[in-house]
Give the backbone structure.
Amino acid sequence: MSDSLHKPAITVQEFSGDAALQIVHSYGGGEFRITKESYVGSQFIMPRLRLDWSITTADDVTFEGIMAMLGDERPDLLLLGLGEAPMTNLPVLGKALSQEGVRLEVMSTPAACRTWNVMVSEGRSAAAGLLAID
């Protein structure tokens, strides 16, 4: 099939400036490429906001830390990408977040990046905490 005949199944609209839609383009080597910029270390993203996240292991994740990252936002879903193969689904954190109206989904960082991109392109109410991986 020639390039001129290729039509993408979906098109993600991107915006310039600080309000750009936060799409994860790549990950690995301890960094992420989000909305055409490279960032070293773990990241916390919402549809139009990216923040450095000061965690280095899943053990660093706390309810208080998550709430500080969310600020006044209460998305319907929080995706946590906790490395290559998370060993826990963080039930205590999940229960505490549900009391704030936020559902928690724990998965690998690669799965969280893929899931995030689909959700944000669909305009869903979500946030993602992404633990950097090698």
User: Anything to note?
Assistant: The beta strands are 24-28, 31-34, 37-40, 43-46, 49-52, 77-81, 103-107, 126-130.
